[in-house]
Each structure stands twice: as C-alpha cells, then as structure tokens.
Design brief:
Layout: H1 4-9, H2 15-18, E1 21-26, H3 36-47, E2 51-56, H4 59-68, E3 75-76, E4 79-80, H5 84-108, E5 113-117, E6 124-128, H6 132-135, E7 139-144, H7 146-154, E8 158-162, E9 164-166, E10 172-174, H8 177-188, E11 192-197, E12 203-206, E13 209-212, E14 215-216, H9 218-227, H10 234-244, E15 251-256, H11 262-267, E16 274-277
Parallel strand pairs: 1-2, 1-11, 2-8, 5-8, 11-15, 14-16
Antiparallel strand pairs: 3-4, 6-7, 9-10, 12-13, 15-16
Helix pairs in contact: 4-5, 8-10
The chain binds adenosine-5'-diphosphate (ADP) and N-acetyl-L-glutamyl 5-phosphate.
Protein name: Acetylglutamate kinase
EC number: 2.7.2.8
Family: Belongs to the acetylglutamate kinase family. ArgB subfamily.
Length: 279
C-alpha cells in the first residue's frame, strides 16, 4: 500500500480531500502500543496538506496513578467519579504526561505538534453533567473555541488536546475523551472523525463468531446497547459518534491503531473498521 503523501504526489487525491481537517481521538487503551509507523503516517497526512486535530484519552494511566496514590476511583455508567483529588490526578496525567508523550512521539518522527488542554484559553468550556450529584466534577461540553485550534493549525502544528474542561468560574471538569472529541469535531465542523482504539471496530457475534461490522446505523447501535453487545468503553464512542453526525460531521470511523497506515487508509476512503454515518 502506498502512503497518502505518495498518492498526493501522484495527483490522485482530490484537492478538497488534501485540505481536509479531521479529528482523531486516540484512546488510552492503545496509546502505549501505537507503533512509530502510526505517527509517520500522521506526519505524512499533515505534509500532504491535511489538518489533523488530536483529542486523546488516558483512562488506564489515570487509574494506575490513582491506585499508586491510594486514591479510590470508580466508574458510574462509564464516567469516572471525580472528586477534587481525582481531578488533580486526571489533569496531571492527561494534560501532563500523556499529552506531552503524544507531542514527543509526533516530533520524534519529524512532525510538528502543539499540546494543550481544554483549560488553555478556555478551549473546552464545560458544565456539570446531568448526574453530577453521582459522578462529581465530570463535565459536558458547552462550547469549543475553534479559533484557537485553527490558530495552532495555521502555525503549522497538529493540535493535541487533553479533555479537561473549564467553566466561567474557573472550575475544572473531567470530560470523557470520546465525548470531548465529538464536541471538538462538531464545533470545528469537520467532515470526519476517526476514533483510534484497541479493537478493529464494533464487533458482533454472528453464528457464534465475532465479526467486525463495516457500518452500523443509529438504530442498530441502540439495539446493541440494549442487548449488551455494545458495553463499557464502546458506549461513549458510539454516543459521541451519534451526537456529532447530527451536525456537520458526516462520518465517524472506529479503527484499531495497530492496523498499518490506518489513518491514511481511512482518509483515502478504504473500508476499514466500523463506519457510523448519517441516514
Ligand atoms: N461491540 C463491541 N465491539 C468492540 N469492542 C467493544 C464492544 N463493546 C464493548 N467493547 C469494548 O470497548 C473497548 C474499547 O473502549 P476503551 O477500552 O474505553 O478504549 P479507549 O481507551 O480506546 O477509549 C474494547 O476494548 C472492548 O472491550
Ligand atoms: C469522565 C471520565 O470518565 N473521564 C475519563 C477521561 C479519560 C478518557 O476518557 O480516556 P479513554 O479515552 O482512554 O477512556 C477518565 O477519567 O478516565
């Protein structure tokens, strides 16, 4: 398979595809395992004129650090119960080590990346989620300062965003990374969001065998949540996908980060992973 840069050089990509800005959500489940070739692919996409925006998670690293510090943590309906103590660790891990790890990995392959969290410039504005009495300082996004992201892109950098939100009083919120990525995609008005995780897409048992669904409808997603075939960390992904495809985002593709050249293959329209689209 040729890279997207080679295809671009061969004049095979449409001009609008080449200029395209897209959001990529990188899950904590897969970050440590992502090979250098993943970041090479990302850099080549950027060099070919595409404008990636990364929103990352880091759930497993947060849990490890909380455990080391002896701070209790539990998930309620997929959201981490977040006290001020938990929030300190969430911010330290996401805005600190994970964010800078991704920036370094992009820079190590010669790319240009700029790390920031939703707190910087009040990039991700948030309010408490509806069940905040149960989960504490967990936020839902009310606004994204798209011009900050575009400013970073205009300077030639890939924005790498940690999903911490802030409100007008300066209160920080822990935001699920899939939810934050969906909100960033909606506010930027990108055509596509790519969700990079540790499974090859949404899987379903068919005749006792697990198969990856190449596409799913909103109705199928609802049914699969109902039957428990979609559970745990896949739920916020499909919910974020369903909520952003009602706006300008046309498709959300869930893929495995360890697939060779997965990003350029998605951008070239190859059928890979699971595609969630409108209609
Ligand atoms: N139907 C499904 N198909 C594939 N994975 C699923 C499904 N339902 C639940 N999952 C789980 O979702 C996980 C991915 O979510 P998560 O662990 O939160 O990843 P990330 O850190 O990338 O956000 C998979 O490893 C799998 O255990
Ligand atoms: C509110 C909430 O649950 N926030 C998540 C934020 C990180 C995240 O979502 O990371 P992944 O993408 O790796 O799951 C958490 O504290 O784990």
């Amino acid at each position: 398979m040729r890279t997207i840069l080679e295809s671009h050089e061969a004049g095979e990509l449409q001009a609008d595809t080449v200029q395209e800005s897209f959001v990529m959500k990188c899950g904590g489940s897969t970050l440590a395992a992502l090979p250098d070739s993943f970041f090479h692919d990302l850099r080549q996409l950027q060099q070919s004129g595409m404008q990636p925006v990364i929103v990352h998670g880091g759930g497993p690293a947060i849990s490890d650090n909380l455990a080391k510090l002896g701070i209790e943590s539990e998930f309620v309906h997929g959201l981490r119960k977040t006290t001020e103590d938990v929030l300190d660790v969430v911010e330290m891990v996401l805005s600190g080590s994970i964010n800078k790890q991704i920036v370094r990995r992009i820079q190590n392959v010669g790319g240009r990346a700029w790390g920031l969290s939703g707190v910087d410039g009040s990039l991700i504005q948030a309010k408490p989620v509806a069940n905040s009495a149960e989960v504490g300082f967990v936020g839902e996004v009310t606004h994204v300062e798209a011009n900050i992201i575009q400013g970073v892109q205009d300077m030639g950098y890939i924005p790498v965003i940690a999903p911490i939100g802030i409100d007008l009083s300066g209160q920080r919120y822990n935001i699920n990374a899939d939810t934050a990525a969906g909100a960033v995609a909606s506010h930027l008005g990108v055509r596509r969001m790519i969700v990079v995780t540790d499974v090859p897409g949404i899987m379903k048992s068919v005749n006792g065998e697990k198969v990856v669904l190449s596409s799913v409808t909103v109705q199928e997603i609802d049914d699969m949540i109902e039957t428990g075939e979609i559970y745990g960390g896949m739920i916020p992904k499909v919910r974020a996908a369903m909520s952003c495809i009602h706006g300008e985002v046309q498709e959300v593709v869930i893929v495995d980060g360890s697939e060779p050249q997965v990003l350029s293959r998605v951008m070239q329209g190859e059928i890979i992973g699971t595609r969630i689209a409108r209609g």
